[in-house]
Amino acid sequence: MAGFSFGQAVGAGFGIVARKPLAVLIWAVAYLALVTLPAFAVMIQGLPEVGAGYRDVAKHAVQGAAPNLGQILSMPSRIAMLQWAVRLAQLIFYTILTGAIFRAILEPTASKWGYLRLSRQELWLGLTNLVCGLLAIVAVLTLSAPLQIGAAIGDFAARQGHHPALGAIWFYYLIGVVGLGVILWAQLRLCLALPMAFDQRRFVLSEGWALTRRHTAKMFLTLLALVLIVWLSQLAVAGLDRMLGIQGFVTHVSWGPGQLGSPMVVQQIGPLIGFVALSAVVGMTIFVIVIAPLASIYQQLTRKAEAA
Length: 308
Fold this sequence. Notes:
By secondary structure, this protein is an all-alpha fold. The chain has 11 helices and no strands. The termini are close together. The relative contact order is 0.14.
C-alpha cells in the first residue's frame, strides 16, 4: 500500500504560513476576538463578584452573623454558566479554524475570507471531533479504573505496615504505560477521520480507521517531530521572554481602579496589547503547524489510492 511523504506532512503547516501569511494573520485576529476576549471578559466579570462575595462573608464573620449561604452558592454557578458558554463558543471556533486549515490544503482556491466558513463541512468535522473526544475520555476513564484500584490497594497495604513489592510497583506503571500507548495508537488510527469528514461532508469514523492501516508507525514519527518542533518553539519564546523581560513587565503592570486612567498605565497598555497580539500570531502559527499534517496525510493517501 502506498504511503505518505514524512517531509511533506511535517512541512504542510510551514507551507501554509509561507504561502498564506495573511490568512494566518486573519486567524490570529479571529482567535483574539472569539476566544481570548470572551474568556477575558468572563474573568473580568466574575472576579469582582467573587471578591464582593468573600468580603461579605468576612464582614458577617467579624460581626458574628451567619453568612448568606444562598449568595455564596449562587456565585460559582453563575460564573460556571458563563464559563461553559465561553467554552462552547471556543469549541465552535476551534472547529471553524481547523476547517479553515483543512480547506487551505484540500481546497486551496477557496481562499475567500481567509478560508473561514461555517458550513456543512464544519458541522460534520465538529461532530466527528466530538465523538473522537468522547471515545478518548471513555478510554482514559477505563484505564484509570484499574490504576485507582491498584493505588488504593497499595495505600491500604502501606497503612497496614506492609511495603508493596518492587515487582508490583513496576507492574502498576507497566499497566499505565501500556494503556496510554493503546489509547495513543487508537487516536492515531482515528485522527484522519477529521479531514475525511470535512472533505466528504459526512460523519465518518471506521473509514478513518481503515485509511490509517499500516501507516500508524510513520504517523507516530510525524507526531514526535511535531512535538519536538512545538517544544523548541516554546523554548525560543521563553528565551525571548526572558531576554526582553516581558514576564516581569506584565507582572508589574498596575491595574488598580484608581490608576486605570493614569498616564503610566496608558503607556503600559500599548506594549501589553502588542505582546498579546504577537502571542496570538505565534500561537496560531504553532496551531497551524500541528493541525495541517492531518489534512496533508489524508490528501496524500486518498490521492494515491485513487491513482492506484
